[in-house]
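> tool_call: predict_assembly(chains=two)
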Amino acid sequence: MNLKFQGKRISGILAILPEYEAHFDDEIQNYSLSSSNSMKLKKIMGYDKHRVVSDEVCVSDLCIFGLKHLFEMNLLDKDEIDALILVTQTPDYIVPPTSNIIQGTLGLKQDLLCLDINQGCAGYLVGLIEAFLLLGNNAFNKIVLLNADVLSRKVSKQDRNSYPLIGDAASITIIERDAVESEVFATLKMDGSRAEALIIPAGGMRLPATDSTAALELDGDNLRSKNHLKMDGGAVFNFMQTEVPPMINDLMNFAGISKDDIDYFLFHQPNKFMLQKLTNKIGISPVKMPSNIVENFGNSSGVSVPVNITFNLGSKLTEQSYAVCLAGFGSGLAWSSMFLRIGELNFCGIIEFGNKGDL
Amino acid sequence: MRDINTLLAGILEVEKVYDEDGLDTFEAWDSLAVLSLMFMVDEEYGVIIGNDEIKSAKTIGDLKSIIREKLGG
């Protein structure tokens, strides 16, 4: 479906990254890989450094740390928040919603909508769309969109398909009305018939986590349990190859623009290989499409979009404004793209979360 | 446009491939090779081959028939 919004804008973006940096070179021994194959993967997929939390850190910890920072720096007034949307696949609890936990811990007002959304790599865009929709009602003036995941805790350390590229991260995006009649164009598609391409089989009601679901099983060269994330790399690549380029064309047609009108293509970052293939296939200059997030921080699912924005554009966005195309695609399966102007933000940057000291 | 044999030999990191060669006999035939094949076939011939189709192939000959079928015989 195609969506158009008017008079709404992003006014600030903060990314929160765990301070701890894991290195692929130190983890090679966990995988059944020859050293030449490891080097090949490192180069092609962009396996290098990735940010991961220590085992006790939850999504709410990262979000609360970031929100407190914004309150302390007077970049956000807690009484002005009308909705707390949290997009995550790794909530603190099944019940209650993690957004309610965050509201309670921070002592936010009761006139507030707390809403958890379970979406992955397209989640940042789904969250933005939800925020824009809420702003269609006068009861909402300022939306805080949290997008956070600690998926490293759900990936087997002996799964070379997923562990070398997984990253944990959180982001806080402020969305509000804009006096200028700016336009936002978005596309959104879902296909649950391909749900198994990215799945954590156990831990929900369908297959509750037990001792037997925790047992490690060999799948090809990879050891993982049913409690771990399982990615069918080929199916995901096929999905990306067939759906993403037409999605970008559809967005351009819908918005009545061409690729040349876009300053930056800020996409979800699955791995370097897929992004470079996408850049070629869509036919855009690599200069306009950063692909450096996985090698520096890992793939943090949907959060890789705001990490991409803050890392590659950062403080430039507090002064200037750019025409950007955002895109997310992954678990669900779900895929979404968005054309909008981002700029003159109140803040745009990255802070680090020291795993224990900051709790 | 590169010949299919040359393309497959490049992905499998060998000098030559033969139709009867079993894919499992190549050390380089791993998940990354599957992704590379999907992409290179798309780039060279403009056709998209499915992950499931590749998984069903046992030999070089099987892979070639899948690609040829997409190219319209």
